[in-house]
Amino acid sequence: MGTVALFGASGAIGRSVAQALRGQGRAYRVVGRSTGSLQREFGADPQAEIATWNPEDPDSIRAAARGVQTLVYLVGLPYWQFRLHPQLMKRTLDAAIAEGVERIVFIASVYPYGRPRTDIVNESHPRVPHTFKGRMRKEQEELLLAADKAGSIQVSILRLPDFYGPGVESSFLHRPFVAASQGKRAQLIGPIDTPHEFVYVPDVGPTVTALMDAPDAYGRFWNLGGAGVTTQKALVEDIYAQAGHPAKYTVLGPGMVRLIGLFNPFMRELPEMHYLHTTPVIMDDSALRSLLGDIRKTPYREGIRQTLAALSPAPVATGHPHPVP
Length: 325
Hints:
Number of strands: 11
CATH topology of the largest domain: Rossmann fold
CATH class of the largest domain: Alpha Beta
Distance between the termini: 30 Å
Structural class: alpha/beta
GO molecular function: aldehyde dehydrogenase (NAD+) activity
Domain NAD-dependent epimerase/dehydratase: 6-225
Organism: Pseudomyxococcus hansupus
CATH architecture of the largest domain: 3-Layer(aba) Sandwich
Largest sheet: 7 strands, parallel
InterPro entries: Epimerase_deHydtase (IPR001509), NAD(P)-bd_dom_sf (IPR036291), NAD(P)-dependent_oxidoreduct (IPR051783)
Pfam family, one: Epimerase
Number of domains: 2
Shape: globular
Strand content: 5-15%
Helix content: 25-40%
């Protein structure tokens, strides 16, 4: 097996993929901007090779990709910098091809689908994003698929819904977990009673490693659904119940989100994606299951139990969580 590099390794999904590789006894390279954060996260793992990059410097990107067989692309950007996604993907793709990288696995989102036209969305659903963020994500995918079609590199794209799990702060559910653990009131982005799905982050890593090792995985994209259709309300009430406290929460509607957005750059960008709360994308991942066989999906109740167990007492975060970008 050749070298695997995780570009954007310090995020929640990157850590899950690294854990899966570690469990398989495979060496891997972690790539990020900060040596310090990479050392804190991966420095104790003898299987991890630490490499830093400057995403604005093509030579730096090439150095990070040198000697790599499979590049897993997990790079995130703040909501207010989404215009940079295609540019960064283009530079990374060019560097990977120049260095002879054989395969790229891109961890993507539901944004390119746009508003769902069916109750359940499979990979044949049109990609017609109606938001700027969706168009930027689709541009990334088009760059990759064109390179695959040209024979320059093999590409597989894995779409994830919103996610949660131990230590995962970049989740709509993080604040309810913290608040419930302290018996305090949580703020939720509404509406909270529409169908939704979440993937448990520790389940993602094994799926990614299985996908990247499957010869038939390349040249297309795949959906990975959550552990079933639920609602934010049902999950939050279970979070509080398992924490041993009555559920207490405030639901922020679009008007309040816009008001907070006057002072918070993330919340300012959120109204564009509000459709995901009213007409959420629920994904059909039967194609992925046909490819890989059994896919581990931790039931929500167990995922909540494990997330609460890993949560050490800490003040409720003052920032705002964000979904898979």
